[in-house]
Amino acid sequence: WSTSALRAYIDLLEDHEDLRMTMFVLPRAKGWKALTKPIRTLTDTGRLQLANHTMTHYDLTHATDRKIKQELVLAKRYIQDNFGVNPGPYFRPPFGYINAHVIKVAADNGFTSPVLWYGSTGSGSGVSSASVLKNCQKWMTNGRIVIDHANSNATVANFANIRALLKARGLKTVTLADAFGN
């Protein structure tokens, strides 16, 4: 994660009270520690939900039971200690790689809801804002989870256009808890 991109998302949430989202915390990314206070403030409002993305972004499908538990539990502790919230039951497996073994071990440790997606903004280093908007036009429809990796500012730079797209389609942003409950 880019600290500046994460900061830009925090700014969006602070500036737009109707905006809601879930962020999957990857503790090894430095931005989480640097932005603890504003993130914690936003989680207290309920407009920002934090969920687990593992401690180090390790491919869980190649992990032992112990390693899967370690990745999830250490990230959970980090989230609880720094932001005062429990990220369970949601987790997003790194790369979207998941199998029955990962699902079982995760569930045994309180993570009963793996989250995958159905579309991406496609943002990243060197990706244009126009490309991000094109992906948003393609993927942002009712009932879809669309992910963005806060690795660049391309999505945030395009937020006015994305917001207009959501409005034109009668869509609103929600957290996982809004959509599926706790």
Report the total helices.
9
Percent of residues in helices: 40-55%
Task: Tell me the series of helices and strands, N- to C-terminal.
Answer: HEHHEHEHEHHHH
Low-confidence stretches: none
DSSP strand tally:
4
The SS-based structural class is mainly alpha
Please, what is the average pLDDT? 95
Query: Span between N and C termini?
Result: 26 Å
Largest sheet: 2 strands, parallel
**In what order do the strands lie side by side in the largest sheet?**
1-2
Shape: globular
**Mind telling me the C-alpha Rg?**
16 Å
Q: Proportion of β residues? A: 5-15%
Care to describe what's here?
- The chain is mainly alpha-helical and 182 residues long.
- Helix content is 47%, strand content 8%.
- It contains 9 helices and 4 strands, in the order αβααβαβαβαααα.
- The strands form 2 sheets. A two-stranded parallel sheet has the order 1-2.
- Strand 3, helix 5 and strand 4 form a beta-alpha-beta unit.
- The radius of gyration is 16 Å and the shape is globular.
- The two termini are 26 Å apart.
- The mean pLDDT is 95.
Topology (elements, then pairings):
Blueprint: H1 3-15, E1 21-25, H2 31-34, H3 36-45, E2 48-52, H4 65-83, E3 90-91, H5 100-108, E4 113-114, H6 129-139, H7 154-157, H8 159-168, H9 176-180
Parallel strand pairs: 1-2, 3-4
